[in-house]
């Protein structure tokens, strides 16, 4: 069973704009907290500096995706796959609120 196959009794409707904004705000705050923790922890050795830098880059990339998702909420495109234009299942958006693609499109199987 995949995230694109609704389970019996699952929510088939879309997330409301309010729910989406709440989830995205939580995601953004979590990532900003991670960046702050990495900044405060610092790095002792060159290897650690490289690792911390890579972690920060990843977090910044996710933050950019979160900001893009905020824009999709504002323009009405949130929750639609950017590849096939079909609705992304609510369960996937609850887990990964900034996702742009349904599972089949993400895997390249559509």
Mean pLDDT reading: 85
Strand coverage percent: under 5%
* SSE succession: HHHH
Radius of gyration: 16 Å
Number of strands: 0
Classify the helix fraction into a percent range. 55-70%
| Number of contiguous helices | 4
Shape: elongated
Structural class: mainly alpha
Largest sheet: none
- Spans of at least 5 consecutive residues whose pLDDT stays below 50 are 1-12
Distance between the termini: 16 Å
List its traits:
mainly alpha, 110 residues, disordered N terminus, 4 helices, 60% helix
Short description:
This protein is 60% helix and 0% strand.
Describe the protein.
The protein has 110 residues and is mainly alpha-helical. The protein has 4 helices and no strands. The longest helix has 30 residues. The radius of gyration is 16 Å and the shape is elongated. The chain starts with 16 loop residues before the first helix and ends with a helix. The N terminus is likely disordered.
List the helices and strands and how they pair.
Elements: H1 17-41, H2 46-75, H3 90-95, H4 103-107
């Amino acid at each position: 069973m995949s995230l694109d196959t609704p389970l019996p009794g699952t929510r088939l409707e879309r997330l409301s704009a309010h729910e989406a904004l709440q989830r995205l705000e939580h995601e953004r705050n979590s990532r900003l907290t991670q960046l702050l923790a990495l900044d405060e922890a610092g790095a002792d050795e060159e290897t650690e500096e490289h690792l911390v830098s890579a972690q920060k880059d990843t977090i910044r990339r996710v933050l950019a995706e979160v900001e893009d998702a905020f824009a999709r909420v504002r323009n009405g495109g949130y929750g639609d796959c950017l590849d096939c234009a079909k609705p992304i299942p609510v369960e996937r958006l609850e887990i990964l609120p900034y996702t742009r693609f349904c599972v089949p499109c993400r895997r390249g199987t559509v």
